[in-house]
Amino acid sequence: MDDHDxxxxxxxxxxxxxxxxxxxxxGSLAQERQILEMIVLGAPLAATLNRLCSVIDIEIGDxxxxxxxxxxxxxxxxxxxxxxxxxxxxxxxxxxxxxxxxTLLGTLExxxxxxxxxxxxxxxVIQRVARLTAIALQRYKDAEELERAxxxxxxxxxxxxxxxxxxxx
Length: 169
Fold this sequence. Notes:
It contains 4 helices and 3 strands. It has helices at 13-40, 45-60, 79-86, 120-152; strands at residues 63-69, 90-98, 104-112.
């Protein structure tokens, strides 16, 4: 190998991991801030949930996470769990996502390649993501309810009939 190679030298994977583990605390805070910004700025729900699932998938590794939304009656269907088991994945963790009024908004399901339970550190990551997911789902639900209420309001700007102009005497 030439000593004058212009490409930058990479640190071995072990060194890279140990260096980034010390920065993980600040990286997690930055990720949380970015996700909260997505929620506040009204990013599409699917994009926010994908980002949250990616955080878990990367932080824990060898897992696949999914957020399943509750239907109108608050019933969760287990089709994803059955599909995951058919391809050889096992349930790693399942967390209910509850609204402020304690109704079911959805579930955060995590499937892994190997049957095992989450470690204490992994449980903390799951709980943090579950809280952010609850915030995202609650905001989305609140926005839907506000939009529905504004459409049904007699003072709505979207009425088909224009208001007659006021008469000036």
